[in-house]
Amino acid sequence: MTPADRLAPALDAALERLAAAPRLLVALDFDGTLAPEVDDPLSARALPEAAVALEALRALPQTIVALVSGRSLESLAHVGQLPPDTPLVGSHGLEVRLGAGAPEPAVDAADRERVDTLRAALAPLVAAVDGAWIEDKPAGFAVHTRVVEQDAAAALQRDARERASSLDSRLTVRDGKNVVEFAVRDATKGDGLRILRERLGVDAVLFAGDDVTDEDALRTLGERDLGVKVGAAATVAEHRVADPAAMAAVLAELAVRRRGILSA
After folding, report:
1. pLDDT at 4 over 50
2. DSSP assigned state of 31
3. Alpha carbon distance, N-terminus to C-terminus of the chain
4. Assigned CATH for 109-183
5. pLDDT at 102 over 80
6. Domain residue ranges of the chain, discontinuous segments joined by +
7. Helix 244-263 vs helix 48-58: angle between axes, to the nearest 10 degrees?
8. What is the pLDDT of residue 103?
9. What is the rounded CA–CA span in Å between residue 26 and residue 15?
10. Buried/exposed 249-261: b ≥16 CB within 10 Å, e otherwise
11. Is the model's pLDDT at 5 over the cut of 70?
12. Does 138 score more than 80 pLDDT?
């Protein structure tokens, strides 16, 4: 590592312990964690150094790399650009793909009808605001306001919440960075991470994320695990790095240390 990438002592010690886990899961948020945030979500890509680190980890025995995101599974697979056998959790835990096969069903016909009704009601509000757009997901949709003027974005989010709550009081509503999401099923990234841990039979987990929704996953971690917050936002994580570049350096260091332990 370069001096600029040097780990904080507490994180360095935690990484050393994690590298020795018999079977390790490296589960990561994507946007803001592996990839810089961009105005066009489908153009997002992991930093080159992060992609290299992920491949190095994937090549190690008893080491599983997974992505856990609020994106739909389809969108996550597109931007993640990882092999098809990579475990993926999309839509905040509602969509799970453990391997190369088809994902587990996220919604039924009744759920789909609720989503369609709500979307039809909110679409005119979104269309009236320049730069706002809707990202469709299996169990709902997200209203994005990243490129919308601040006051207009706040007004749109307020109006969308009010319209949604008047139509469907059972909705799950989540706030994120420049986005508000409506879902007819309640699940979190924590739920998704629990599924990965149980189904993959791992001994320890590294989870890293930057957004408020990543806190649900960070709260599930135990004493053998490692949680890392990317960025300056408030967090329950014990460790923090500044940005995706710093997170890529952590992943690269983990790959080096784990390779050394496994080959000893």
Report:
1. no
2. B
3. 21
4. 3.30.70
5. no
6. 3-105+187-263, 109-183
7. 20
8. 67
9. 12
10. bbbbbbbebbbee
11. no
12. yes
CA dihedral 5, 44, 259, 254 (to 10 degrees): 40
Q: 3-105+187-263 has which CATH code? A: 3.40.50.1000
Lowest mean pLDDT among 26-30, 58-62, 134-138, 247-251: 134-138
Position 9: which residue type? P
Report d(CA 209, CA 141) in Å as an integer: 21
- pLDDT recorded at residue 41: 87
What type of residue is 3?
P
Sign for the CA dihedral angle at 57, 95, 186, 38 comes to positive
Distance separating alpha carbons of residues 214 and 202, to the nearest angstrom: 20
Short-list 218, 196, 220, CA closest to 230 = 218
The two structure tokens encoding residue 105: 């069903």
Would the CATH topology of 3-105+187-263 be identical to that of 109-183? Answer: no
Contact 187, 137 (CB under 8 A): no
Burial class (CB in 10 A: 0-12, 13-18, 19+), 198: exposed
Calpha distance 29→210 (Å, rounded): 8
Count of H helices and E strands in the chain?
8, 11
Q: Cα–Cα distance between 18 and 8 in angstroms, integer?
A: 15
Task: State how far the Cα of 197 lies from the Cα of 27, in Å rounded to an integer.
Answer: 10
33/3 Cα distance (integer angstroms): 21
